[in-house]
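During the first year of the project, the team set up a workflow for recording each protein of interest as an amino acid sequence followed immediately by a discrete structure-token representation. This format lets reviewers and collaborators read both layers of information side by side without switching files. As required by the reporting guidelines, we include two representative entries from the current panel. The first entry is reproduced here exactly as it appears in our internal archive.
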Amino acid sequence: MKTLRPPKLNKGDAIGLVAPASALADSTKLEKAVHYFELQGYRVEVGKNVGKVHGYLAGTDEERATDLHAMFSNKHVKAILALRGGYGTPRLLPRLNYSLIARHPKILCGYSDLTALSLAIWKKCRLVTFHGPMAGVDFAGTVDAFTEEMFWRSLTSTKKLGRIPFPESPAVHSLRKGTARGRLLGGNLSLIISLLGTHYLPDFKNSLLFLEEIGEEPYRVDRMLTHLRNAGVFAKAGALLLGQFTDCTPADPTKPSLTIEQVLRELATRIKRPILSNLPFGHVSQKMILPIGLTVRVDANRSVVEYLEAAVK
């Protein structure tokens, strides 16, 4: 299947905002996000069901899927951004019209629970989507300069993105040396685990697999990583790119536990692949964008990640 890259974003284009998972707890974040994008020279279309609440979901499955379909169908909308993650995106996967999405390839950006949506779309459509900032989280207040620069450059430039200039702190470091080249695939660890055994999970052969997590105790992260190893996922991947595993600490520090750093270092002794750790993506304020499906080179000897092509056309 041919890889689809979405058209680049131009000033004056419309950006669609959707809530495929949980609802925004603070409605003012929607207003702030709209204001931010309008100041940058874009128009904003808000999904008609964005304000809905259905328990822990931003409306029913049908309402959230309807908003996604409407944004992909809208000829004026050139990029679709999730307002937030939370929970609920995997429930939409059987409802989505993947033929519609493939006929109208557009920028789709989000992280956390959006992992399920991005990986399913790659599997079904081969459309490059973006593991990156969300409108109601990263653009509804003070915007981190690194996140902002990477976001706009990735979505508006048809030039090869090249080497990623990581922030000095916290430092990216190597857990296992080596080099590799392949397509970026990955996202939130829990969401990838939730797709195992389904037909929405891509083949990770020769991929550069990126993983991040938040709020899970080290033993739970260990269990999920072991699940991936036992399922043969790591044996297929060409390299691992690990995020910062935010707040992944023991709930009771008085009880014996490995640290998350120990869990990851033990993993590196078992996985004979180049591994970079502490990369800025996912549940952190400084976010690189990871275009799912893009060809990338990693040099774990020098802590280098280089994007070998443009993410948009």
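The second entry, processed by the same pipeline in the following quarter, appears below.
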Amino acid sequence: AQGATIVTTAGNKPFVEQVAAAKHTLHPDDLSRAPKAAVVETYAGKRVFSAGDRAVELYDVGPNPHVAEMTVAYLPKEKLLFVADLFSIPAEGPLAPAGAATREFAGKIQALGLQVDRIAPAHGRMGTIEELKQVVSAK
């Protein structure tokens, strides 16, 4: 409603447009009161946004056993990677052994040459690349 542009992978564009067009009748929001089509841009492989000396890089790390397309966000200056579902770190307790999707994710980080120190998962606590390497190498 405020004119934001949504950036996603091509395969997710129809879903994003459908969600953006959904009516909110119980608690109408600005977009429901003044409907207009969402502005959705797609990217393939990599997309970079920068302002001055700051940058965020989006990467499609799919396909993998979890999904066909998956965007992760990388902040190169901070060596920080944000990811959902491919690597979760519990708030307490031991790390779970890596499944196929986590193993492929670790391989994609290496193949892309990303210099990652910290990982911010959508679920759980902040982690490190060493923790990812630990679960991938565990037998």
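For the second entry, the following points were noted during internal review. Helices lie at 13-21, 30-33, 100-112, 129-137. The radius of gyration is 17 Å. Both points are flagged for discussion at the upcoming steering committee meeting.
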